[in-house]
Amino acid sequence: RGEGRTATQRLLVRALQCYLLYVVTLLPLLATGQASLMYTIRCALMGGATPFGDFLKFYAVALALAPLLLQARRKWGLAPLIVISIIVHMAWPWLYRIPAPPEFIGGDALEKVIGFLVGGSFTTVGGPSLLHGMTFVVCGMLIGKLTRAAMSGDLIKALQARRLATGCLIATTLTVLALW
Fold it and tell me: Are 8 and 67 in contact (CB under 8 A)?
């Protein structure tokens, strides 16, 4: 339990560092007139899109959410997270068709926030959607678990891991082909 708390602290510190660096990337845009003061503030509040800096915004939020994802894995196991990840990617053709939200207070603030959170065809966000990004984190958890099992020295665990990895590869390939 002490290790988990330390890992959580490290993730949150790294999230804060990414956020502060993201805010630093906004300053040249403001200084050169490429963004107004209000848009810079909106971006700092995670409500805008910026060139070259959105990956830091993504990591700031993803790293802040990582302890919750790890807690969910400890509580429910990896299988439910994998199922949710698969559903998210299979739902992409419908998520992509979500229409742009109406202008909010004379601007596209909702469009940028929704685009960052779930993606969509209307988005001008400079990076991956948070929802899709977190599903890749879950896939990384699965790859780590399979690799650990395959290298454990236990022949039965290794064979099971290889079968599961092969099944995942086939399922992923079929899903990609079906959505292509």
Answer: yes
